[in-house]
């Protein structure tokens, strides 16, 4: 049997195990070890099982994961994120669909702190959806905007997905963070524009909230949330100015979050313990996934399947744009049935050799991949963020209503994706500017 055929069988087996709800890292690791044994020997497989975990966990870049997780968990556990929705509501009170737009704006800031799409959707399901339903907002709009705005956590730095992509593709994580800023802001603005125009055309979606806020109230709202923007700007600004690396920024961000919470007297033994335990659990889960993916990637290299795929695709596709569009379609289809991390870890070992041969800018491609994975967080039948919102709300809103609500945000995301593909400088302008 040809080596590439054994590789293809392994990909199919890994997909089957993931569909059967075997944990991603375990599924990829077991298939990878079995495949290496089939292609070489069990001694080679056990040797890789012994060396890869040590090499990866000792990787300096990967230490950014627990640090950024700790920063987000401390910010959440100590209340640094709690006033975001109320403050955004005050500043956007005059805009049609103001509560939904406030949710998007607050989600963008929350996502910058947490780096997690699911955490963002879970938080605002409890914070903003009840307020919108109380204000007689259309349930589809109220839940759809929360599920969709939650996806901003993948694109707005610091992002855990960017760190994983950077390690897998051997791309500068700092440059990826820089490249995510403008697309992240653009995505949030497109969502807000979509909400505003939709509510202007159909006022029944979001009855006007006739609330006037004084300058004193706006000043108080700004004072309530200033630590979080300061923390985010400080961390990202230090990376962009070259003061420290993305890995160092994670440690500085975690320490700064603790310091700010301490000054506000919101950091106590219980909140610190909760943040540390959540960080340990989240880091362990991510490291298991990354180790499994590394073993699977080594198996793909042994099988020579990526090389065979590259040769076939290079003969079939006549341009870089055609190839990127074909990959985008594949990702959109996979996003309907697989979770985002699974898609990235399964496909990148296959795609990286092809992308390198076609001279595709991996920073730009990384932003496209993360945008595509964002869309997958809302597409049925998997739609992780949709189920997070449903879980938080229980029987108050039917699942079909939430999927109906995310439909027009998916359309907005597809338009943003089109802009990112057509104009790569949207992603590359800032990193190119700051690297001069």
Any idea what the shape is? globular
The H/E string reads HHHHHHHHHHHHHHHHHHHHHHH
Helix content: over 70%
Mean pLDDT: 83
Q: Poorly predicted ranges (pLDDT <50, ≥5 residues)?
A: none
Based on CA atoms alone, the radius of gyration comes out at: 22 Å
Strand count, sense and closure of the main sheet? none
- The amount of beta strand, in percent, is under 5%
Number of helices: 23
Tell me the number of structural domains.
Answer: 1
Structural class: mainly alpha
Terminal residue distance: 51 Å
Q: How many strand segments? A: 0
Main location: membrane
Domain TRAP C4-dicarboxylate transport system permease DctM subunit: 12-426
Membrane topology: Multi-pass membrane protein
Protein name: TRAP transporter large permease protein
Topology:
Elements: H1 3-19, H2 24-39, H3 42-57, H4 64-77, H5 84-91, H6 98-114, H7 117-127, H8 129-134, H9 139-149, H10 152-155, H11 160-169, H12 173-201, H13 215-225, H14 227-240, H15 246-263, H16 269-303, H17 305-316, H18 320-335, H19 340-357, H20 362-376, H21 384-393, H22 399-422, H23 425-434
Helix pairs in contact: 1-2, 1-16, 2-3, 2-16, 3-16, 4-15, 4-16, 5-6, 5-13, 6-7, 6-9, 6-12, 6-14, 7-9, 7-21, 9-21, 9-22, 11-19, 11-20, 12-20, 12-22, 12-23, 14-15, 16-19, 17-19, 18-20, 19-20, 20-22, 21-22
Family: Belongs to the TRAP transporter large permease family.
Keywords: Cell inner membrane, Cell membrane, Membrane, Transmembrane, Transmembrane helix, Transport
Transmembrane segments: 6-23, 30-49, 69-92, 104-128, 140-164, 176-198, 230-263, 284-302, 322-355, 362-382, 402-430
